[in-house]
């Protein structure tokens, strides 16, 4: 009985330790969302729905990411590409921050300011983009990773949004960030989406190179079958 009790206690402590380490890893992502959460433009964006969408997007992303991390512990890692991760995240963070800054500038100077209708179009695209991103992540399941990764049991996913595009999570993020820049109602901010697309295209090419190297003909055939990278029927 003492042995069984000790085993149960050890198992519970080990599970708690692992879950805490996973949670800490997710919490480290929170600063990346700060530009999306701080109401810098409260005098500018007085629509409650705008903040509600931000909160829903942030909360959904955090919850799903935590869940996927718990699933991913079961899959052995075969190869990981870290070389461009921090440069990619840092550049993306800077673009989001500058988009807000330019939105602030346009509001107070009138330079490049867009009509109010762009706010509502932006909110709609934020919802669509996050939904498409989550669909991709949930379909990918344990194979999802913020870092370009190939697992020992990796296979080509061809169901769900992967029938339409090869990188739905990236495509959803691009649509989401396009919505953010439109919501800022600044032409200058809107231009930043071109850099975002270039960044994700570079990252997708890196990922596809790694997948082709490790999955071979299976992934090559998938690329031939599914021609679009990010957005169905467009790109």
Overview of the molecule:
The chain is mainly α and 235 residues long. Helices cover 69% and strands 4% of the residues. It has helices at 2-27, 30-37, 48-72, 85-109, 117-140, 168-183, 187-215, 217-225; strands at residues 77-81, 148-151. It has a two-stranded antiparallel ribbon. It is elongated, with a radius of gyration of 20 Å. 25% of the residues are buried. Mean pLDDT is 74; it is low at 1-20 and 30-46.
What keywords describe this structure?
235 residues, mainly alpha, Four Helix Bundle (Hemerythrin (Met), subunit A), two-stranded antiparallel ribbon, disordered N terminus
Number of helices: 8
What is the terminal-to-terminal distance? 62 Å
Uncertain spans = 1-20, 30-46
Shape: elongated
Helix share bin = 55-70%
Radius of gyration: 20 Å
Name of the level-1 CATH class: Mainly Alpha
Order of adjacent strands in the largest pleated sheet: 1-2
Q: Which CATH-level-2 architecture?
A: Up-down Bundle
Number of domains: 1
| Largest β sheet strand count, sense and barrel closure | 2 strands, antiparallel
Q: Order of helices and strands, N to C?
A: HHHEHHEHHH
Q: What is the strand content?
A: under 5%
Judged by helices, strands and strand pairing, the structural class is mainly alpha
**CATH T-level topology:** Four Helix Bundle (Hemerythrin (Met), subunit A)
| Mean pLDDT level | 74
Number of strands: 2
């Amino acid at each position: 009985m003492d042995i069984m009790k000790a085993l149960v206690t050890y198992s519970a402590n080990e599970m708690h330790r692992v879950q805490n380490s996973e949670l800490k890893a997710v919490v480290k992502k929170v600063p990346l969302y700060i530009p999306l959460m701080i109401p810098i433009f409260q005098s500018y964006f007085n629509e409650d729905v705008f903040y509600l969408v931000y909160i829903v997007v942030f909360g959904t992303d955090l919850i799903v990411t935590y869940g996927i991390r718990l699933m991913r512990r079961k899959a052995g890692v075969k190869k990981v590409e870290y070389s461009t991760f921090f440069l990619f995240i840092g550049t993306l963070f800077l673009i989001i921050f500058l988009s807000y800054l330019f939105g602030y500038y346009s509001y107070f100077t009138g330079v490049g300011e867009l009509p109010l209708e762009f706010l509502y179009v932006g909110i709609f695209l934020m919802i669509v983009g996050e939904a498409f991103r989550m669909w991709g992540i949930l379909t990918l399941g344990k194979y999802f990773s913020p870092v370009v990764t190939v697992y020992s049991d990796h296979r080509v996913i061809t169901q769900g949004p992967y029938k339409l595009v090869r990188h739905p999570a990236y495509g959803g993020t691009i649509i989401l960030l396009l919505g953010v820049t439109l919501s800022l109602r600044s032409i200058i901010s809107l231009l930043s989406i071109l850099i975002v697309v270039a960044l994700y295209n570079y990252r997708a090419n890196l990922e596809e190179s790694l997948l082709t190297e490790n999955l071979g003909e299976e992934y090559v055939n998938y690329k031939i079958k599914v021609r679009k990278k990010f957005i169905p029927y467009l790109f």
